[in-house]
C-alpha cells in the first residue's frame, strides 16, 4: 500500500500557529534571561529575546522558500518583546538555577516539531524536512550563546541537537505513516523534551571522538 499523499493543508493543521507561538515565546524568554544574567539593559534584553526567538525560523524560511514569518506578521516580534518585558520586570530570584535550560528545552521540542511540519507543508521531502526541524530548533539558541559569549550548545557534551532531531524526525515519520497531526506533534514534542530533560538532569551525552 503506498504512503498517504502529503499536502500543505494536511501538514499544517490548526494547532501549528499555537505550537509556533509557544516555541518562539520560550526561546525569546531564554534569550532575555541570557542577557539579564549579565546585568544588561532592557534594550539588550529585547534584542536577545528577538534574535533568539526568530533566529531558527528565519533560517528555515529562507531555506525552504517561505516568506520570513516575523517580517510579515507583527505578532511574532510582539511576543518576543513581551517576553523580554516580563523577564525585565520580575525579580531575579525567579530565574535562578536552571530556568534558562528548561525554557530552552521546551522551545527546542516545540520549534523542532513545527519546523518539520512547515517544511513538509512547503513540499520539502521527509528527510530534509526533519533537518529543517533541527535547524528551526537549534539556530536561535546557537545565536544566543554566541552573542552572550558562552560556549555554544553545539560544543557542550550533553544531548541537544539529538533531542531536536528526535522530535523533528519522529514527527515526520509519524505523519508519513498517516498518524493524526495532533498525535504526531504531541508524541514527537514530548519525546524531544523528555530526551533533553534527561540530558539536563543526568548530563547524558553521546560518546566523544577518541582520536585513535
3D structure, described in words:
Residues about 1-10 have low confidence and may be disordered. Helix content is about 70%, strand content about 0%. The protein is mainly alpha-helical. The termini are far apart. It has one domain (about 10-200). About 45% of the residues are buried.
Question: Helix and strand layout, with pairings?
Answer:
Layout: H1 8-11, H2 16-36, H3 42-64, H4 74-89, H5 99-121, H6 126-147, H7 161-176, H8 181-202
Helix pairs in contact: 2-3, 2-4, 2-5, 2-6, 3-4, 3-6, 5-6, 5-7, 5-8, 6-7, 7-8
Q: Give helix % range.
A: 55-70%
Whole-number tally of structural domains: 1
Assembly type of the chains comes to: single chain
CA(first)-CA(last) distance: 47 Å
The number of distinct helices, counting runs of at least 4 residues, comes to 8
Q: Structural class, please?
A: mainly alpha
Shape: globular
Note the main sheet: none
- In total, the number of strands is 0
Summarize the structure.
With 212 residues, the protein is mainly α. It has helices at residues 8-11, 16-36, 42-64, 74-89, 99-121, 126-147, 161-176, 181-202.
Which properties best describe this structure?
212 residues; mainly alpha; disordered N terminus
Amino acid at each position: 500500500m503506498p504512503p498517504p499523499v502529503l499536502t500543505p493543508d494536511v501538514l499544517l493543521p490548526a494547532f501549528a500557529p499555537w505550537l509556533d507561538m509557544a516555541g518562539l515565546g520560550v526561546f525569546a524568554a531564554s534569550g532575555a534571561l541570557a542577557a539579564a544574567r549579565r546585568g544588561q539593559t532592557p534594550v539588550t534584553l529585547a534584542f536577545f529575546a528577538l534574535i533568539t526567538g526568530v533566529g531558527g525560523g528565519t533560517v528555515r524560511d529562507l531555506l525552504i522558500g517561505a516568506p520570513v514569518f516575523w517580517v510579515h506578521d507583527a505578532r511574532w516580534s510582539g511576543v518576543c518583546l513581551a517576553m523580554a518585558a516580563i523577564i525585565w520586570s520580575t525579580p531575579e530570584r525567579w530565574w535562578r538555577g536552571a530556568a534558562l535550560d528548561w525554557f530552552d528545552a521546551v522551545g527546542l521540542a516545540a520549534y523542532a516539531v513545527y519546523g518539520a511540519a512547515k517544511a513538509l507543508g512547503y513540499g520539502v521531502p521527509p528527510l530534509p524536512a526533519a533537518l529543517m526541524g533541527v535547524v528551526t530548533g537549534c539556530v536561535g539558541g546557537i545565536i544566543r550563546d554566541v552573542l552572550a559569549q558562552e560556549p555554544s550548545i553545539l560544543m557542550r557534551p550533553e544531548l541537544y541537537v539529538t533531542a531536536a532531531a528526535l522530535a523533528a524526525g519522529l514527527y515526520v515519520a509519524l505523519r508519513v505513516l498517516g498518524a493524526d497531526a495532533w498525535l504526531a506533534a504531541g508524541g514527537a514534542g514530548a519525546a524531544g523534551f523528555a530526551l533533553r530533560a534527561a540530558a539536563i538532569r543526568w548530563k547524558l551525552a553521546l560518546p566523544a571522538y577518541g582520536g585513535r
